[in-house]
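Onboarding guide, step 5: your first structure request.
Type a short instruction followed by the sequence, for example:

Predict the 3D structure of this protein.
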Amino acid sequence: MKYNENYKLLPSQIAQQVMKSVNEEFKSFFELIHKKRSGQYTAKASIPHYLPKDGVREITFTPAHFKIIQNQIRLSLPKQIKIKYNVKYLYFPIPPHIIDQPVKEVQIQPYYG
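The system replies with C-alpha cells like these:
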C-alpha cells in the first residue's frame, strides 16, 4: 500500500485514517466469524471487498488538516497536488444545521450519480 501513488499523495495522518478504516472492516469481519462459530450469529459473514484498481474510498481529514474560516471548511492539500493544480486549499460551506457545532473530522465520500 505504501508504494501506491494515490496513497503517497495523501498526508500521512490521512493515509493512516484510510488504513484504520480498512482495519476496522476486517476486525468486524473476524468478530462475525467468531460469533457465527459460537452460534451467536446466523447470517453469512462476508470478507470486506477489495476495491478495483481504479476504485476509490472515503478519506477523513483530521483537525490538523482543516481550518474553519467564516462558516467554511478549508482543507489543506498535499504539496504534490498544490504544485500540479496550482491550488493550495479547497473550501466547502458548513451546512447550516451544524454551523454552531464543533467539527471533529471531515470525511469526503465518493459519490457516483
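Each response can be followed by summary notes, for example: Residues 5-108 form one domain.
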